[in-house]
């Protein structure tokens, strides 16, 4: 069993803060700053260009990819790091559509993170081949899994409510219908157990600045099922996805594995911070994380519902259908969250009326939950949220 007191000690949490926003930006590992400084001074500063070989920068996207792969049920050599999540969504969808050329329907849902839908819409318009993007309510997705479906592209855990799809069952349904499946794991990796290999998912993408604590701007990842990796065409055929980048051939020849999904120069400084952050996962099993997460979420829900009847649970009540976050609805939710932040309880707000709390067992414990519930109850009981300064919208909510 994980010693969660020991893992909490690995992270810097400012004094007086209860941090319940790790589902948006993870806390900083205490060793991250020193590792970044050493990389900049000792590697970039002293090695200069030699760092690509001597510090193994060139191998970093696959080396770190293997660390992520362990947490999502993927084999070594099937995950590669780099670029942003939006880029990886584009790559996965473009490749998936080419794998199913006779079908024109892409299905997602209207609860998906908007950037996934924007990327899909933009790609479809660029292709101009008659593809259609359908975004039904999440509960209606299965009704559109049929012989017309080219690609099913879903986010495993809903960013607003934490609602979680049954990945294995839905992937099988889509495959039985002849469709390709893409999973966005932005709110899953490091939060809930995932078994990409066991589910036979075709593609998966995700970010690393949330539960993996890689820091703002940490690189995204893409998974490609091994039997696809030698045949999918990367729509963004960058030089580092080439089989021999330093041959400088004028014609593109993709790498023979998932490395073909590399595009340009990796963000080495940021990836170094992520690689350091991944040390917190040494010896950690996702089953233990999940058990602890459910315990913390259930404690929070019970406490809030007992003391704040004016808040409506927006997340699934069944823990088996919920990720590692809890959301409540309130008409003035933005102001409530600002009042909480002013009292040192940091969560976030998602339009139109969701106050959202992430539970990251590596550094959140039962005392944090009790403290957050107490402060939230005080704010709601006294209407402390109803002050002009708490209604003023910031650029980031």
Automatic annotation (TrEMBL):
Gene it is expressed from: kynU
Annotated source species: Thalassospira permensis NBRC 106175
This protein's pathway: Amino-acid degradation; L-kynurenine degradation; L-alanine and anthranilate from L-kynurenine: step 1/1; Cofactor biosynthesis; NAD(+) biosynthesis; quinolinate from L-kynurenine: step 2/3
Chemical reaction(s) catalysed: L-kynurenine + H2O = anthranilate + L-alanine + H(+); 3-hydroxy-L-kynurenine + H2O = 3-hydroxyanthranilate + L-alanine + H(+)
Highest taxon of source: Bacteria
Protein name (Swiss-Prot/TrEMBL): Kynureninase
Subunit structure comment from the entry: Homodimer.
Binding, pyridoxal 5'-phosphate: 85-86, 113-116, 155, 184, 187, 209, 239, 265
N6-(pyridoxal phosphate)lysine PTM positions: 210
